Structures are given as structure tokens and as C-alpha cells.
């Protein structure tokens, strides 16, 4: 799947699942393992796990399954690896602690997720 289509699929799926603060981070040239990261916040560990599962299922439904996913039984952070895009779904506390956006220094020209709140 082309990168922009994958980003659109992920951001729409996360938005449909009521994820908060969805951010797209372009790490092209900064990371050798992926081109893009999507970071989103879930309201609880149950929500985090559900959102990660929704993203995995969305890629399966598009006949483009993920490479893998990692989380614990009560995940504060779930990672879904799709190769050219890595999705991080975290609780608010984990997201504040790890500050991935600061770690990867979000570029001003990075693609941003837009959410149409009129459908909410």
C-alpha cells in the first residue's frame, strides 16, 4: 500500500475509534526502519489495545496485513508495525512520559492528520 493511503487508513481508523491527538511524524532520513510514525492517545489500557486491534484489522481488510504488533496484557503502549508506517497507541501518561514527538523532532512540513469533527 502506498504511504499516503496507509496514513489515511490509519488516521481514519484511529479517529473512528475515538483516539485522541492523532499526530503523523515524518521520519524519512531520521530512521532506517520506517518512513512515518503515527502517534495517538487512548483513554485507557483497554482502549489502547482496542485501537491497535482496529488498525491491524483495517490493514487485513485492505489485504495488506501488518508485519506485527506488540503490547502487554494491560498495555499503556501498543505498537503496530506496517513497515513503512509504525503506529504507536498510548495512554495519556505513557505518551507524556515517552514524548515520541519530541524524540523524533516533528518537522514543520510533516503531514498532519485532519479530523472532520462534524461527523462526531
Automatic annotation (TrEMBL):
It is found in: Cytoplasm. GO terms for biological process: cytosolic ribosome assembly; negative regulation of ribosome biogenesis; negative regulation of translation. Keywords: Cytoplasm, Repressor, Translation regulation. Pfam families: RsfS. Transmembrane segments: none annotated. Interacts with ribosomal protein uL14 (rplN). PANTHER family: IOJAP SUPERFAMILY ORTHOLOG, MITOCHONDRIAL ASSEMBLY OF RIBOSOMAL LARGE SUBUNIT PROTEIN 1. Functions as a ribosomal silencing factor. Interacts with ribosomal protein uL14 (rplN), blocking formation of intersubunit bridge B8. Prevents association of the 30S and 50S ribosomal subunits and the formation of functional ribosomes, thus repressing translation. This is Ribosomal silencing factor RsfS. It comes from Thiomicrospira aerophila AL3. The gene is rsfS.
Amino acid at each position: 500500500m502506498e504511504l499516503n493511503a496507509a496514513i489515511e487508513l490509519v488516521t481514519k481508523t484511529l479517529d473512528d475509534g475515538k483516539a485522541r491527538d492523532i499526530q503523523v511524524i515524518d521520519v524519512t532520513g531520521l530512521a532506517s526502519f520506517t518512513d512515518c510514525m503515527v502517534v495517538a492517545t487512548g483513554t485507557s489500557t483497554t482502549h489502547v489495545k482496542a485501537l491497535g486491534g482496529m488498525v491491524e484489522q483495517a490493514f487485513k481488510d485492505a489485504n495488506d496485513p501488518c508485519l506485527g504488533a506488540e503490547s502487554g496484557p494491560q498495555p499503556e503502549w501498543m505498537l503496530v508495525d506496517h513497515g513503512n508506517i509504525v503506529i504507536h497507541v498510548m495512554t495519556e501518561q505513557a505518551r507524556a512520559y515517552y514524548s515520541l514527538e519530541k524524540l523524533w523532532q516533528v518537522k514543520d512540513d510533516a503531514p498532519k492528520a485532519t479530523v472532520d469533527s462534524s461527523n462526531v
